[in-house]
Amino acid sequence: MAEIHVCPGPELTAAQLYDLLVLRSAVFVVEQQCPYLDPDGHDLSPGTVHLWAASPDHPIAAALRVLDDADGVRIGRVVTHADHRGEGRAAELMQAALDVIGDRPSTLEAQSHLTAWYERFGYAVSGAEYVEDGIPHLSMSRPGV
Questions:
Q1: In the 3-class helix/strand/coil scheme, how is 81-120 assigned residue by residue?
Q2: Collapsing DSSP states into helix, strand and coil, what is residue 139?
Q3: Exposed end of the chain (fewer CB within 10 Å): N or C?
Q4: Which pTM value belongs to this model?
């Protein structure tokens, strides 16, 4: 089991934010070839909580964020470094995120090929498939418990 770090957005250090942005850019922009501006104004918001797992070779091997804003509670930017896929780090982060969320309902936008993976955590498809940045996605929701 990896050590999970949990940090409210406003408490991130510059180095932590930098490492998060590097990982997300490496996977979403470069690997998945989706040129978009990842910094969206939510990373440092008071309603954002970042979760990540480190490794000896990567300060952030996997990460996600929980947004608690006017649109409700959302999980987003779930990402794992290519060198650490298949190690269960993202699953550990999802479970930790559900602990942060507690009994509140939540949503996420899943790449369509990952819907079965998110279903393991109680999420269900809640909308029609759509394409974002050339990748099919589905909205998913989880009722409060």
A1: CHHHCCCCHHHHHHHHHHHHHCCCCEEEEEEHHHHHHHHC
A2: strand
A3: N
A4: 0.93
